Amino acid sequence: GLEFSQEQTLRGTNGERLLVKDALGEPIRLDTIRDAKDGAAIELTIDAAIQAEAERVLARVGETNTPVNASAIVMDTRTSQVLAMANWPPVDLDELDGAGSESLLNVGTSYTFEPGSTFKAFTVASALESKTVTPESTFTLAPSIQVYDRVIEEGHDRGTVTLDVGDILAQSSNVGAVTIGLQMGGQKFSKWINRFGFGHPTGIEYPGEERGIVLPYEDYSGSTMGNLPIGQGLAVTPIQMVAAYSALANGGVLKQPRLIKPVGGVESPEDPGRRVVSPEVASEVVDMLKGVLAPGGTASEVSVPGYTLAGKTGTAQVATKNGYSDSRYVASFMGIAPADNPRIAVSVMVNEPQNGHTGAEAAAPAFGELASFALPYLGVPTE
């Protein structure tokens, strides 16, 4: 699809010549009216070595977890250039006639899913930027919270606890995220969802990009704010998520993801992006996300020697016509590495994994593998 979408640039233009003949029909002159022009070369931002590693890692995920599909994206946080974008299951390029439309889907840009707890980073970032909370704010949280007709519980059994904002992220507290969201209020929260780019195409140079599904504020119900702060009740794409996490990693500026380098060797001005949160808030959220991979965090078993990592697990129940499923999940992990001087943001999405359905089990290890390869390969110094 990408080559077809760039056909006008790649194809070039035909030339035109005028052939003059005499009265007997013999050619006597050939004039060039317009020279033919070759098409321009297009170079992708994809790094072949990181792409190969992403495909290898997803192949392991596919073999271990047999999901419906899976996606891995590696993005340069400084430029928002996509270094790898891999799908599972793979497609046999020699047998495209027999491949169905689902097999040909570029999951990274055209598949929508509920993000679950990976969305809590934006709940916290929005609350910090709007001065609803500070990093030192603490909350006494019961095991569950009721929002109109919905009761939201934690993903694990616990008693009443007191957690600060960083603990809420590290321990992925549903009750804590909803409490913060309720303090912010639906109208303000809706504006922040739009500000981070959800519900809109990112503009990546790839055909058929989906925009996700986001309720406008006027369609919120009483229980909506029991869903949105924990990443339910809206749908996103992997490229939207990695772009938004890249914004947190680069100091709060959301940039358009890039898949194509400047055409014809002509340098174009770097996209300045637009600021979504302050550098201070972006740094505070990334600092909190370190706790996810620290002891007591939901992905504490993932590490890369020599580097500090940040990220967030997500385990979202699949929405069906009869409500949320108790047996079908989308597992995901959003990662930033290194945490203190970010170079890459990584999205891993595993749709309906078997043999371990959580983001910590099915997606986080893949982030660890990708980071452990990409950081030394890119020459990122150890800390």
Report a brief summary of the structure.
The chain has 383 residues and is of the alpha+beta class.
What features would you describe in this structure?
With 383 residues, this protein is α+β, with helices and mostly antiparallel strands. The protein has helices at residues 2-5, 7-11, 48-65, 107-110, 120-129, 165-170, 174-184, 186-195, 224-227, 238-249, 279-290, 359-362, 364-377, and strands at residues 16-21, 27-34, 69-76, 82-88, 138-141, 144-147, 150-153, 161-164, 253-254, 274-275, 310-320, 323-337, 344-351. A 5-stranded antiparallel beta sheet has the order 4-3-13-12-11, with helices on both faces. The chain has a two-stranded antiparallel ribbon with strand order 1-2. A hairpin with a 6-residue loop joins β12 (323-337) and β13 (344-351). The radius of gyration is 24 Å and the shape is elongated.
Strand content: 15-25%
- Overall radius of gyration: 24 Å
Please provide the ordered H/E string of secondary-structure elements.
Answer: HHEEHEEHHEEEEHHHHHEEHEEEHH
Say how many strands there are.
Answer: 13
The 3D shape can be described as elongated
Q: What do the pLDDT scores average to?
A: 94
